[in-house]
Write a structure and sequence with these properties.
This protein has 13 helices and 14 strands. The chain is an alpha+beta fold and 370 residues long. It has three domains: 1-173 and 241-248 and 355-370, Alpha-Beta Plaits, CATH 3.30.70.270; 179-234, DNA polymerase, domain 1 (Orthogonal Bundle); 250-354, 2-Layer Sandwich (Dna Ligase, domain 1). Helix 4 (85-99) runs antiparallel to helix 5, helix 10 crosses helix 11 (227-234) and helix 12 crosses helix 13 (318-331). Pfam families: IMS, IMS_C, IMS_HHH. Its EC number is 2.7.7.7.
Length: 370
């Protein structure tokens, strides 16, 4: 047990992120796609959305959640492939079996991403770096796919580490380097800080981790609300969130913050349709359906409202999601205000008891090496 004079114990956290997972599976299984710009998602004729993009496509500025019509404009020779979530789930299961050779503390963020707490591990390997290297090698040997890993003392730092050397890389942020790493990190690179929040931070003179660290807790909460507490901690390389194996997923959703506040009804309904497609994809990849749809709206004055409707049957049908979200949107009294954020979530899930999300245990023993 640690007392007030004992240094805070370090955890050993690995973040594994499969490289362009859906697209890489398609290129693995279809040799004619290899080396070519490819996206998984609906085609432009279907007003689809990109679910994943190969690295060849990313060179053209194509990314997930982008409307397919925008993607094809950036790369006319782009290949569109319909998602095969049953295949992706099978491969994800293979990968999670590899994780559990080393630890049962696994947080599955998505089919292609997970956190592992290896502070204590099944093979008694002293270094998390070694475990990450073994895992990446086993994933490639057994699935012919590459993964990038980040290793550090908490979830935030491990996530940031895995973003430093993609694809097929491995990065370690040691305890003694953590604060300097965060201070030098551009604010746009912080996990959880999107384009709109980054722009607001720039307007406040916050451009990197050092600038963020220089702001008081009261100032950050004044400008960013409750999430200001989180920003205050990660600016100091602190993250107490724990890995929670088998935590039940309660909802599946997506939201978009707009760089410019929107007021045009047609534009907003189009954005709502794009969000609905992302939600439908996520429901499908999680093999679940929901009965309660919740619409989230944040206005330009930062007032946030939600409206919900419980459907007679479980669904993940795109038309049903769009129709219900649109009905809720049209019923909202907007008072001529513009909108800065829209979101859709499905809850009351059909198989909630069987839908685990796997998340960061805080141990009380001291481990100083990674």
């Amino acid at each position: 047990m640690c007392d007030a004079l004992t240094p805070k114990p370090w955890r050993k956290i690995i973040h594994i992120d499969m490289d362009a997972f859906y697209a890489s599976v398609e290129q693995r299984d279809n040799p004619q796609y290899r080396g070519k710009p490819l996206v998984v998602g609906g085609s432009p004729s279907q007003r689809g959305v990109v679910a994943a993009a190969s690295y060849e496509a990313r060179k053209f500025g194509i990314h997930s959640a982008m409307p397919s019509v925008t993607a094809i404009a950036k790369c006319p020779e782009l290949i569109f492939v319909r998602p095969r979530f049953d295949v992706y789930r099978e491969v994800s299961t293979q990968i999670h079996e590899i994780f559990r050779r080393y630890t049962d503390f696994v947080e599955g963020v998505a089919l292609d991403e997970a956190y592992l707490d290896v502070t204590e591990n099944k093979q008694n390997i002293p270094y998390a770096y070694t475990i990450a290297r073994y895992i990446r090698a086993e994933i490639f040997k057994e699935t012919n796919l590459t993964a990038t890993a980040g290793v550090s003392i908490n979830k935030f730092l491990a996530k940031m580490a895995s973003g430093q050397n993609k694809p097929n890389g491995l990065t370690v942020i040691l305890p003694e380097d953590a604060i300097a790493f965060v201070e030098g990190l551009a604010i746009e690179k912080f996990h959880g800080i999107g384009e709109v929040t980054a722009a607001k931070m720039h307007s406040l003179g916050i451009h990197n981790g050092a600038d963020l660290k220089g702001r008081s807790l009261s100032e950050l909460t004044q400008h960013f609300g409750k999430v200001g507490h989180h920003y205050y901690k990660i600016a100091r390389a602190e993250d107490d969130r724990i890995v929670e194996p088998n935590r039940v997923r309660k909802s599946v959703g997506a939201e978009t913050s707009f760089a410019v506040n929107l007021s045009d009804r047609a534009v907003l309904l189009h954005e709502l349709e794009q969000i609905a497609q992302i939600v439908q994809q996520r429901l499908e990849q999680n093999s679940t359906r929901g009965r309660t749809l919740t619409l989230k709206i944040k206005f330009s004055d930062y007032q946030q409202i939600t409206r919900s409707k419980t459907l007679p049957n479980y669904t993940r049908e795109l038309d049903t999601i769009i129709t219900t979200a649109t009905e809720l949107f049209e019923a909202v009294e907007k008072e001529n205000r513009s909108i800065r954020l829209l979101g859709i979530a499905l809850s009351n899930l059909e198989n909630a008891k069987q839908t685990p999300i796997i998340q960061l245990p805080l141990f009380e023993y001291v481990v100083n090496e990674l």
